[in-house]
Amino acid sequence: MQKTAGIHHITAMVNDAQKNIDFYAGVLGLRLIKKTINFDRPEVYHLYFGNDTGQPGTVITFFPWTKQLKGRVGTGQVGVISFIIPNNSITFWENRLKKFKVKSFQSVRFGEKYLKFQDPDGIELELVERQEGPINNWLLGEIHSDIAIKGFGGAMLISAQPNKTADVLENVFGFECIGQEDDFLRFKSEAQLGNAIDIKLTPSVRGLMGAGTVHHIAWRAKDEEDLLRWRKLLQSKGYFPTVIRDRNYFKAVYFHEEGGILFEIATDPPGFTVDEPINQLGQKLMLPSWFEGKRKELEEILPLIEVRVLEGDK
């Protein structure tokens, strides 16, 4: 059976680009690995954050657009995004969030302790200590490799039809169902990162797309040949995947599963060093070749943004 390794990336919608950078880079210590545009709406940034190398399974991306309305988290969406932190680092993160006036609280799910909080736009996040996953060597402010976020732990999905979504995870993507606890059903993949997916079984309000919500979740394909196999498999099971789209850093197909969530399958290669060296990731506005002729126009439209060490870290 064909299997995905787990999450490739997660993409969400927010209002303010600089606030987004200040939180995910400044507070959470992720590396801004790519500053580009939304290929479908080039007047909007597409910002990518990840670990020091931008490895699949660590990358969270954003469409920051000041004019978009506030969304509502609900069915047909990713409800919560989980990040892995090293063992014995949860107290550090609890104190760090408090220092930057981010409210947090602890909860337990499937025997693991989670530190739950929201980003400035209301996206639900949580940190969980796990041994698995490579060390993240990106340094910013007081964050160092012993406590730095490693990458995704997983995600919680809010489906309009939980059993249908469970069927896709298990019988299309090859996740293993490892059990139910309260109103959550958990699935795991074989990867070290982005490998634990929980489906919420109880009803929820219908999700509304907008700032503070997740746009889509992407699953990993080994390469373009693997992606073609995924596309044929989806078609054979009655889904309607898009044509393969070139996103410069990966190739991808998209489809809505029956619970209403937008799923993407994205290739690991070519990766984020295809257009700039690894030591310069995220420093310059990178445009795909078909937009390069509009660089000057786009640079005048897009707001000025920067990665900066926040006052509390100086």
Description of the molecule:
This protein has a single domain, classed as 2,3-Dihydroxybiphenyl 1,2-Dioxygenase, domain 1. Helix content is 16%, strand content 34%. It has 5 helices and 16 strands. An 8-stranded mixed β-sheet has the order 2-3-4-1-13-16-15-14. An 8-stranded mixed β-sheet has the order 6-7-8-5-9-12-11-10, covered by helices on one side. The longest helix is centred in the C-terminal third of the chain and has 13 residues, at 224-236. This is Glyoxalase family protein. InterPro entries: Extradiol_RC_dioxygenase (IPR052537), Glyas_Bleomycin-R_OHBP_Dase (IPR029068), Glyas_Fos-R_dOase_dom (IPR004360), VOC_core (IPR037523). Residues 6-130, 151-268 form the VOC domain.
> What is the CA-atom radius of gyration, in angstroms?
18 Å
CATH superfamily caption: 2,3-Dihydroxybiphenyl 1,2-Dioxygenase, domain 1
Report low-confidence residues grouped into runs of 5 or more. none
Biggest sheet architecture: 8 strands, mixed
Class from helix and strand fractions? alpha+beta
Give the mean pLDDT. 96
**What is the CATH topology classification name?**
2,3-Dihydroxybiphenyl 1,2-Dioxygenase, domain 1
CATH class: Alpha Beta
- In N-to-C order, the SSE pattern is EHEEEEHEEEEHEEEEHEEEH
| Spatial order of the strands forming the largest sheet | 2-3-4-1-13-16-15-14
Q: What helical percentage do the residues reach?
A: 10-25%
Total discrete domains: 1
CATH architecture field: Roll
User: What is the terminal separation in angstroms?
Assistant: 51 Å
**Which outline best applies?**
globular
Number of strand segments = 16
Domain VOC: 6-130, 151-268
Protein name: Glyoxalase family protein
Pfam family, one: Glyoxalase
Organism: Peribacillus huizhouensis
